[in-house]
Every structure is written in structure tokens, then in C-alpha cells.
Amino acid sequence: MTTPDPRTIAVLAAAGFPVDVLTDEQLQVFATLSEEELTLLLDIKSRLDDVEPEVQAHGSVAGGALF
Prior knowledge:
The chain is mostly helical. It has helices at residues 6-14, 24-31, 35-50, 52-56, 59-62. This is FXSXX-COOH protein.
């Protein structure tokens, strides 16, 4: 198991992830992401942000898990 890295949460918050609404368990999962997983998640968020008006309308359908 990967050791939790609290810096990961700071990186996610800086990228616009709403970390303040996540449960402790969810934060634990995010804090244990590998460097590759974090990079992928940030890339996906960046691409979604690039098309925000189109994705934003579907936020309630998708559950907003990544936003």
C-alpha cells in the first residue's frame, strides 16, 4: 500500500478539486495516489476544464466526482 502524502491533497486543491467537501476516507484515497495516478487525474481535470461549458451542464448527471 502506498504511504499517504498530504502534499497530494494540496496539489489537488490548487488544481481546483473541491477537497474541502471530501470525506476523510476519500481524502485518504486521494492522498495515496501514485505520482502517475496524480498526473493522470490532473491531466483529465485539465482537459475537462478546457471544455467546461459543455461538461458543466452534465455535472449533476455525472455526479461531479472529479470536480
